[in-house]
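A reminder from the course coordinator: this example appears on the midterm review sheet, so study it carefully.

Given structure:
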C-alpha cells in the first residue's frame, strides 16, 4: 500500500500523505472507500499513530478524504478536493515553469510535455 523510506529527508507523515493521496488520485482507493483506521495503519507501518493522524488531518484539510465521527476516514469524490489545493499546485507549477524557462527550456517544449502527460492519463497510464 504505502512504502516508507526512512533515509528520505521528507518527514514520515509527508510520505504517508503523498502515498495516500496517490492512491486516491489513481483510484486504487475508490471514492467513499474506507481507509484503514489510524491504529491499523500505524500498526501495519510500525509507526506512531500520531504520525498517521497528522497525515489524515492534512489530507482532510486538502479535501482528499473526509471523516465521519465513529465510522472512520473515507476517500472523497474528486469534485470535493478543495480549491485551495488546486491553487497550491498551480503556484508550484508556475514556479517550476519559470525555472524551466530560465534554464532555457522553451514554452513549446513544456507544452509538448504537458500534452504527453495528458495522453498518458487518457490511456489510463501514470496519474500521479
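Designed residues:
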Amino acid at each position: 500500500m504505502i512504502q516508507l523510506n526512512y533515509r528520505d529527508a521528507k518527514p514520515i507523515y509527508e510520505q504517508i500523505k503523498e502515498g495516500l493521496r496517490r492512491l486516491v488520485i489513481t483510484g486504487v482507493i475508490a471514492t467513499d472507500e474506507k481507509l484503514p483506521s489510524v491504529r491499523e495503519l500505524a500498526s501495519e507501518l510500525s509507526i506512531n499513530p500520531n504520525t498517521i493522524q497528522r497525515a489524515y488531518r492534512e489530507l482532510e484539510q486538502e479535501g482528499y478524504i473526509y471523516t465521519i465521527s465513529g465510522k472512520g476516514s473515507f476517500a472523497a469524490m474528486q469534485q470535493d478536493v478543495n480549491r485551495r489545493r488546486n491553487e497550491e499546485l498551480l503556484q508550484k507549477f508556475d514556479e517550476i515553469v519559470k525555472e524551466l524557462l530560465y534554464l532555457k527550456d522553451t514554452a513549446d517544449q513544456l507544452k509538448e510535455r504537458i500534452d504527453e502527460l495528458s495522453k498518458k492519463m487518457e490511456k489510463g497510464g501514470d496519474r500521479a
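The chain has a mean pLDDT of 90. The radius of gyration is 17 Å.
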